[in-house]
Amino acid sequence: MANSAMTTGEGLAEQLVLSSFMPALLLDGDTRVVIASRSFARTFETNGNPEHRLLAELGLGEWSVPQLHSLIEVALGDGPIIDTYEMDLKRPDTAVRRLRVNARKVASGSVAEARVLLTIEDTTDARLAAEAERRLVRERDALLRERSQAAEDRSLFISEMRHRIANSLQIIASILMLKARAVKSDEGRMHLEDACDRVLTIAGIQRQLCEGLDDIAVGPYLTSLAGSLSASMIRGHRPVTLTVEADESVVHSNVAVSMGLIVTELVINALKHAFPDSRAGSIVVRYRSDPPKWALSVEDDGIGMPKDRAKAHVGLGTSLISALARQMKAVVAVADCNPGTKTTLTGSADPIVPTPAAA
């Protein structure tokens, strides 16, 4: 009865091996092949039918691996189950194949009656794919490090250039101030002082941009700019205040430069025309963004717009503001606030200013 059960079990094992999609061998206690799966024959060249041959004799002897035979002996001796054993199958003139082997005892008895089921999974392609993936990851990481270093070098270069530009502008402003003191004409002195103020303001913008090369917080940026304008143009002897009201928006540094130039021109214009005869007043700079819409305005409570606006002179500042507004795809509107004047730039898309390379 026991022999009958064993025979039935062995027959079932043989049928399972034959139909296995995974390469498999059923071995006896001498590691002689009882039966081999069709997939084993297709996957591995064994120089003829592997059945009734010792495992070490298959192929060109590539299966004669001491560790593999030790694994089978452990399985036959009811030792601890080793779920996965990996080995390299080395055959002359053939690429090394990486295998994952599993050995299980499926029948006990004498050496001739014992059975071990050996299943083999060829992981060569998976290993090559994993190695290729790791290589790609290493190459990607190296490229990212190179780009990061290049970006850092670029940032340092741009920062250094902006510092140098700011220093050069400071020197130009000093020369203009010296020339203004030497000019006897009041009108000539006024023009030179205006030019000096503009140069100083642009120098201040350059220094602020050194702190953030890409994205600039609008509120702190405009507040710092207002402080520079107050220090250079109001200088404490004019009863005019300059304040900023802005949300927490962030813009690209190219946009910040354009905003700074626009605000500078509008503030200079207000200081020149809105508060004659040391008149007291205030100037408020505002920025609000509700993406994609945004608005930048400069408002004063001075004497207001000239009565005859048609004869008003269009100066360099007005032309500059118009050009910058077109670049930012914004619309300029000037309103009489009674008292005072308000100039507003509004856009229906995020303000975008092309970089010098793209301009």
Brief summary:
The chain is built from 8 helices and 12 strands.
Tell me what you see in this structure:
It is a single chain. 47% of the residues lie in helices and 21% in strands. It starts with a helix and ends in a 12-residue tail after the last strand. Strand 3 and strand 4 form a beta hairpin. The chain is built from 8 helices and 12 strands. Residues 1-6 have low confidence and may be disordered. A 5-stranded antiparallel β-sheet has the order 2-1-5-4-3. The chain has a 5-stranded mixed β-sheet with strand order 7-9-10-12-11, with helices on one face. The radius of gyration is 42 Å and the shape is rod-shaped. The protein is of the alpha+beta class. Helix 4 packs antiparallel against helix 5.
Strand runs, count: 12
Q: What percent of residues are in strands?
A: 15-25%
What order do the SSEs take from the amino end to the carboxyl end, as H and E? Answer: HEEHHEEEHHEHEEHEEHEE
CATH superfamily heading of the largest domain: Histidine kinase-like ATPase, C-terminal domain
Overall spatial form: rod-shaped
The chain-level mean pLDDT equals 81
